[in-house]
Amino acid sequence: MPQSYQAKDTIPNTPLAASLISATLGAVAGAALLLASFPLLRWLGAESWSWPRPQLAIYITAMGLFHLLEFWTTAGWNYRKLSVDAFLLNNTAGYHLAHLMGLTEYFISSYFWASKFETVWASWPVLAGVFAILVLAQSFRSLAMVHAADSFSHIVKAVKLDDHTLVTTGVYGYVRHPSYVGFFYWAVATQLLLSNVVSTIAFVVILGRFFSSRITNEEKHLIRFFGNDYIEYKKRVGSGLPFLVN
Fold first, then answer.
1. Residues 6+ apart with CB under 8 A from 231
2. Which residues form a coiled coil (predicted)?
3. What is the Cβ-side half-sphere exposure of residue 186, based on CA atoms within 13 angstroms?
4. Measured between alpha carbons, how far is 170 from 175 in angstroms, rounded to an integer?
5. How far apart are CA 218 and CA 233, in angstroms?
6. Backbone CA torsion sign across 15, 71, 100, 94
7. Domain spans, the chain
């Protein structure tokens, strides 16, 4: 692990820790993906091996892959900033509480309102659509990290680093903040996947406010770093979250 990056002290920043975390996340995501695929066995006539509700397993798979891909893309294209922090497992308490709230709503509604999962909102066409959003949003987020490479950071920088350049190509040619766009739609899709009503609304409102504030603050620094180049880029390309920031 690069020693030039100052990691947090919450998780040991060692190759052993990184390998154990990767193995655990991979095993969990793989097992969940296997469970999520069981409904397909119905089409093959293996009724005894199938189960009717794959949403939770898909959710666990999405969570595992998200944290793995955060680390892998950093390792592949932004190695100098690599640490165990790149898994984002030691993200803010709000992140973990939000997903805990979503899981709590899912389990409570599963017990007291099981019929909800028999409505159109939990139908296979809707599930397929939400799954597609998850895949596209995750891909957009990961591509943003790949295309920005050394210029990408999980933390808003108030000081311009030597390797910080203005990236306007790749997915940045379509939206100014593709990593935020990807995360926003990915996070909301996880709650749609679980058929969570309250959590879906809460995610939209809370994430909307968070990214609106973060983008406004970040772009003040970007204009200071890159001057007129960023101002012209901002005129040409939208934020990707038009209802929050132009």
1. 223
2. none
3. 23
4. 10
5. 14
6. positive
7. 1-91, 92-246
For residue 211, with 0-12 CB atoms within 10 Å meaning exposed, 13-18 middle and 19 or more buried, which class applies? buried
What six digits make up the tokens of 43? 């089409």
* Alpha helix (H) residue ranges in the chain: 15-36, 40-43, 55-77, 93-112, 124-148, 178-193, 197-226, 228-236
**Which stretches of the chain score pLDDT less than 50?**
none
| Measured distance CA(211)–CA(233) in Å, rounded | 19
Structure tokens at 89: 């497992």
Q: How far apart are the first and last CA of the chain?
A: 38
Are the C-beta atoms of 189 and 127 separated by less than 8 Å?
A: no
**Residue among 205, 98, 188, 194 at smallest CA distance from 141:** 188
Is the pTM value of this prediction over 0.85?
yes
Reported as a single tens digit per residue, the pLDDT across 190-235 is 999 999 999 999 999 999 999 999 999 999 999 999 999 999 999 9
Residue 241 makes CB contacts below 8 A (sequence gap 6+) with 177, 180, 181, 184, 208, 211, 212, 215
C-alpha to C-alpha distance for 86 and 84, rounded to whole angstroms: 5
Angle at 16 between CA 12 and CA 17, to 5 degrees: 40
